[in-house]
């Protein structure tokens, strides 16, 4: 029988462990998991404490296999094409640091790329002859415009003599929180002969990915600890058979590495063996995947919608088909610090944007016991709110009032003090 307690406070109090005064509006950054999953993790932690060697050597590989088998259907891929890594950033690094870049090679990404992934590319470019091309996106933007910009940049890079090795893009952007046309971008990559790497940090448990195997990206990673309700950190890493030979090592290189001239005889595939045991870390989040999926099947048949006031949206509405809402605050971000006659307290110069952002965030934490994901984008200050089953309409009405109060205070210059 499917159990469906009401979403909002009852769901929160029944299944989650938030502090009574805390309002969790930022699920997308670090996730949250129910007590049922916490109890499962505690069980594994106890087993590891009682018999550490036995648990790690004999039990852990089988338990990880059970989790791989449980999560494979959610991606629509064979179980031998998925392993676990601690987080999406690790998966992205694993792909990029396994590829051999040569003179003239180019990686294309969008300006909305996750900061850690962009820095990874810069780090690699310090050691290898890699060029990075960023495609500017200014939201709201429609899917067809994204695809057109992608194809145009590929054409221009190739016309200039660049060899585009790989394109990297998201399933759902971190900021603003909107859905990307990742399926169409993968198809475009196939047509253009470019490897595709999907940073699906906000993917599994958030949007439907059961057609991932049919779409067929070259590399894919997605955090389970965000929207699938596993403990932190846990991410599923998918590499189809055709590309597994490109992933020669895990990060860090460990016992699963195979010497080219003297490979071992393995029970499991080299890819699975590579990631089965990397270092001595807490693997219990990986083992909680089946219990997290069980929880979702029982009580998470739908997702609470995030209401907003001035919600950023495109004409088609496709970009809003995710669990984020992006609220535009009533500030105009000027291109220059110098004030004009028409500028008011709502007009913020570039040297003060960071100060305003930090003041809004810290004040919300200290005075209202909540965390607001805030960032400047395309001349506006946006707040990204996460819809979740433990939230209700009153939570968004509450944060709307608090945002109005914060903005009113900021207009008086309080953030400058």
TrEMBL record:
InterPro entries the UniProt entry points to: Aminotrans_V_dom, PyrdxlP-dep_Trfase, PyrdxlP-dep_Trfase_major
Cross-referenced SUPFAM superfamilies, in alphabetical order? PLP-dependent transferases (SSF53383)
For this protein, the record's Gene3D superfamilies field holds:
Type I PLP-dependent aspartate aminotransferase-like (Major domain)
Q: Where is the Aminotransferase class V domain?
A: 62-240
GO molecular-function annotation terms? transaminase activity
Task: Report the Pfam families cross-referenced here.
Answer: Aminotran_5 (PF00266)
Q: Which UniProt keywords apply?
A: Aminotransferase, Pyridoxal phosphate, Transferase
Q: What is this protein called?
A: Aminotransferase family protein-like protein
């Amino acid at each position: 029988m499917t159990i469906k307690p009401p979403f909002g406070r009852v769901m929160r109090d029944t299944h989650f462990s938030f502090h009574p005064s805390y309002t969790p509006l930022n699920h997308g950054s670090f996730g949250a998991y129910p007590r049922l999953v916490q109890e499962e993790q505690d069980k594994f932690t106890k087993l590891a404490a009682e018999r550490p060697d036995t648990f790690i050597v004999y039990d852990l590989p089988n338990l990880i296999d059970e989790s791989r088998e449980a999560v494979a259907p959610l991606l629509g891929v064979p179980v031998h094409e998925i392993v676990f890594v601690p987080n999406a950033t690790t998966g992205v690094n694993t792909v990029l640091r396994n590829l051999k870049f040569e003179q003239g090679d180019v990686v294309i990404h969008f300006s909305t790329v996750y900061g850690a992934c962009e820095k990874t590319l810069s780090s690699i470019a310090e050691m290898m002859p890699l060029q990075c091309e960023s495609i500017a996106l200014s939201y709201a933007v429609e899917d067809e415009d994204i695809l057109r910009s992608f194809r145009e940049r590929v054409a221009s890079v190739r016309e200039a003599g660049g060899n585009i090795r790989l394109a990297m893009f998201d399933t759902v952007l971190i900021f603003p929180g909107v859905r990307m046309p990742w399926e169409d971008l993968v198809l475009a990559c196939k047509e253009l002969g470019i490897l595709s790497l999907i940073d699906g940090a906000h993917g599994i448990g958030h949007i439907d990915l059961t057609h991932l195997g049919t779409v067929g990206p070259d590399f894919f990673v997605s955090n389970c600890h965000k929207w699938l309700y596993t403990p932190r950190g846990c991410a599923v890493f998918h590499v189809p058979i055709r590309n597994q030979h490109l992933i020669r090592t895990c990060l860090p290189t460990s016992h699963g590495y195979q010497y080219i001239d003297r490979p071992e005889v393995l029970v499991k595939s080299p890819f699975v063996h590579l990631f089965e045991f990397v270092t001595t870390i807490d693997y219990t989040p990986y083992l909680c995947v089946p219990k997290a999926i069980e929880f979702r099947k029982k009580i998470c048949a739908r997702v609470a919608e995030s209401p907003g006031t001035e919600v950023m949206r495109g004409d088609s509405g496709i970009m809003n088909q995710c669990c984020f809402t992006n609220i535009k605050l009533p500030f105009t971000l000027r291109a220059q610090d110098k004030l004009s006659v028409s500028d008011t307290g709502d007009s913020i110069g570039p040297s003060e944007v960071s100060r305003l952002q930090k003041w809004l965030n810290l004040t919300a934490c200290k005075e209202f016991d909540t965390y607001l994901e805030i960032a400047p984008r395309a001349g506006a200050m946006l707040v990204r709110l996460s819809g979740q089953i433990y939230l209700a309409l009153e939570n968004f009405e509450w944060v709307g009032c608090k945002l109005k109060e914060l903005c009113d205070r900021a207009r008086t210059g309080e953030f400058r003090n």
